[in-house]
Protein 1
Amino acid sequence: IIGITLVIISSVLVAIHHFSQVGSEKEALKIVEEIKSVIPETEIGIPDGRVDAEMPVMQISGNDFIGYMEIPEYDKSLPIYSEWSKYKVADFPCRLKGSMYDGTLIIGSVENPGQLDVAKLIAGGQEINIVDMTGLKYKYKVTDIYMTKDVSTEKLSAIGVDLVIFIRSHFAKDYMVVCCDTRS
């Protein structure tokens, strides 16, 4: 009886987890479409070392976003939450710190379905785009990928590239760090 009860409970938990991830993916796609509908037509930009590197924030569905991320190779688009939140990172990539305008942007995410589930497929030379709320699109090329357990702000800031994306694995033991540059 205990064994059957445990199997039923675990099946229910797996089903709940699956449906919440499907819901997160649909919500992310809905938000990206809403962002696209309210921002101007996109134009290409490059980091220019602005003194005021503050990125515009827009509230959508009760959440603040700085724009969205595109990975064209895998037809993936995800909204980027405006600030770090250990609660929001399961739903959306979150900006840990920095700005795309001065080449200091650091984004955290997870490799759950509906999030950066294509993380293990990302390879050097591939393109990742960030579009801000003004329609400015920065095109980055992946220059390096490595695994680590240390994703402290200090370590990620010291990498010295224009964009750093760190992605927590399913089991939260390791992080994949994707380094990108506009100069590649």
Protein 2
Amino acid sequence: GAASNGQGNNLFIRAHISKSTAFLGEPVTVIYKVYNRYPMVNFSDVKIPSFNGFYTEEIALDKNGKGVSETVGGIQYTTLEIKRTLLIPQKTGKLE
């Protein structure tokens, strides 16, 4: 899934989800990546949504992670993974 399609934006965040359907108790990974066209931006204050109906566990990231080049809609961005969360569904049905 994507928080924004990113087209025409110089800075946006996308949430990449490992799978859209899971069994009760089956882990799903969410990776938040910043797509950036600015030379220097501080991402220490990013607000991440809460996940109702899931047990969540934050996965430690390499603090020295380097930006990676990625092209979205023909525009080149520097991307940086800012958060990785493990979600484990605690109930059945459609969860958002």
Protein 3
Amino acid sequence: MAELFDLQEEAQKRKKEGMEKAAKNRKWLLDKARDCAREVSYVTPGGECTSDHVATAMKLANYRYEDLGNAAGSIFRGKEWVWTKEMVASLRPSSHGRWIKVWRYEGD
């Protein structure tokens, strides 16, 4: 059983490293995505935002959400974003209706 937990710890370590690498490689676009997320939170009830909201806002700002690649998983990283414990089905066709988290901005 200890082996299972060792593997889980290693998996989490690799996930964190992968996210950090992706975020570093796409930093300029990730910064734009985070700006979009904050802007969305200013106009939505309760300051809530999802990755679908970010994708739409980025499109309106002439950026491609798809170009974030794995860095998209880092948009809501940071203490200013809190997961509401809610999930909704994504409306983006490329997401095939998978469940996405609803986040609330608590910065500023």
Protein 4
Amino acid sequence: MTDKDYSQTAFLKFLRESAVTGMTKPATARARKLAAEQLLIQLKSHERLDLRMLDLDELCARFHILQGSTVRPETLELYKERLSSALKDFESWTSSPDSFQ
């Protein structure tokens, strides 16, 4: 039995594949990709290995501290919601790709 890959690399691959294969609507895929690009740049090295362990509130707090007032709070909340839903789909797909919808 092989271990499942929940890394940042696998997540980004999932985002690309879900857009290309039609698992995700194009607009949703673009929005999720943008949120991931914005927030995941703040990941620590150990967080990149298993995104299931990621604390989105803490990640958003780090992002807000580093970006300061350049990002509005409602935009940051939207990024968080989009990344959260993408991560849930990623975890579901990774654990059972054949039954993913």
